[in-house]
Amino acid sequence: MPAMLERVPTLSHRIHQEPAGPKITRPFGLDALTNPVTIDNRRPLITVDPATQLSVVDGQLVVENPTMANTSCTTESDGADAIALDTDTNDD
Amino acid sequence: MPTTPAMSARGETAPRVLVVTYALDPTADYVLRELNARGVPFWRTDLADFPTRSILRAELRSDGQRSDGQRSRWAGGWHDRSRGVDFSALRAVWWRKPTPHEFAETMSGPELQFAATQAKQAMTVLGSLPGVLWVNRPQANADCTKPVQLAAAVEAGLPVPETLITNDPAEVAAFAERCGGRIVTKVLGGIVHTENGKRGQLYTRRVPAEQWDDSRIALTAHLFQREITDKAYEIRVTVVDEQQFPVAIRPTHTLADGEPQLDWRQNSKSFTHSATTLPGNLQYGIRQMMDRLGLVFAALDFIVDQKGAHHLVDVNPGGQWAWIETTRDAISYAIADLLEKGQAG
Q: Which of B256, B292, B297, B327 would be a feasible disulfide site paired with B245, CB 3.0-4.6 Å?
């Protein structure tokens, strides 16, 4: 594995607080920004079940939680859910 | 609490499969549930757990002959308080959705930068281990950028819409005219954008003629592509090694202006999914492209026009797939098969 890990895609759940700059220097591509929603800092407790090693949210196995189906944890980045998003640099 | 090749700290057979992903990964869970059902020992961890919650030890050896005849120069393993992998036993790595390394909160910025570099470089020891199947190698994921993937697709004989990447507004109008006046713009990176405490998405967007010479195109690189104006439906093809799982994605309704939605990610619940088949030449081209990109897994997006022609528009090396119920189980089993088998040579 060459030393390319600086470019390894990883999830980032950081929400930037800095406001947009002036219109004249705002990249054209950001005109596509859709449905920006305010994100609060409330996050559920996310753990891994020690026995099964499956995802657990607020004490419940995610695969057994019907409300998790078709959220952005499992779908594309449709912004329908605030718990986790695919923010990889090159996959969605 | 180190592990041995024969037994883990929990008294289980030492894992041969390493799964690197975020603690909340329901898509991975479908595969992990299958591995549990099969009794395949694995260890799930995240880069975020290293070094604060897991320990790595790698010692360079001059001999390093393993029981399977492979020669490994690095002995040791990576483990947490409950489980881990011994390098001599490792046969498969599923590199899913890792999150960045976490360190002591009291580190300064420069200290964090140093620590992160050290941790990242150390983790590359995994890539030097012989006889390990990677799904996918992280550098293959990282290299699968839009320019690289689209070029690989063309070289593999897959049809790709005409594409222009530029920061020159003067080039856009001529390109658009060559495309019959209908072009879209797509992001070169991820579609999620956050600022001002808000999160939004950057979906594929039509570029009208009055924007072709927008001076702000010059502020950075942008990707423009011919719009497939007679789109009939889309296909998501999930590729797992030699297997392909194509699913047709059809809108349940058109937009108010009678146009189909440009980007189904914008409203994924307004589409139906059904298993479909791909022409033989397309299947062959996909295999060729996957080889060129060094990928074992990917989720591909095609647009099918009214004439039945397929146009490749995206390659997602870490794409999601569990949201499509039609193929969820089959893909889960295929990935579990792959991880269970690992790589012999």
A: B327
For chain A, list residues with pLDDT below 70.
Answer: 1-13, 40-43, 67-92
Q: Does the pLDDT of residue B285 top 80, yes or no?
A: yes
Residue B244 has pLDDT above 70, yes or no: yes
CATH 3.30.70 fits B162-227, yes or no: no
A19 and B CB contact within 8 Å: yes
Cα B320-B326-B332 angle, rounded to 5 deg? 55
**Does the complex come out with an ipTM higher than 0.90?**
no
Binding-face residues of A in 55-84 toward B, CB within 8 A: 55-57, 61-63, 68-70, 73-80, 82-84
A55-59, B263-267, B280-284: the lowest-pLDDT one: B263-267
CATH of B137-160+231-317, one of 3.20.20.70, 3.40.50.620, 3.60.21.10, 3.30.470.20: 3.30.470.20
In B, which residues are within 8 Å of A33 by CB distance? 193, 200-202
A15 contacts in chain B (CB < 8 Å): 194, 197-199
Contact B190, A87 (CB under 8 A): yes
Cα–Cα distance measured from residue B179 to residue B228, given in angstroms and rounded to the nearest whole number: 10
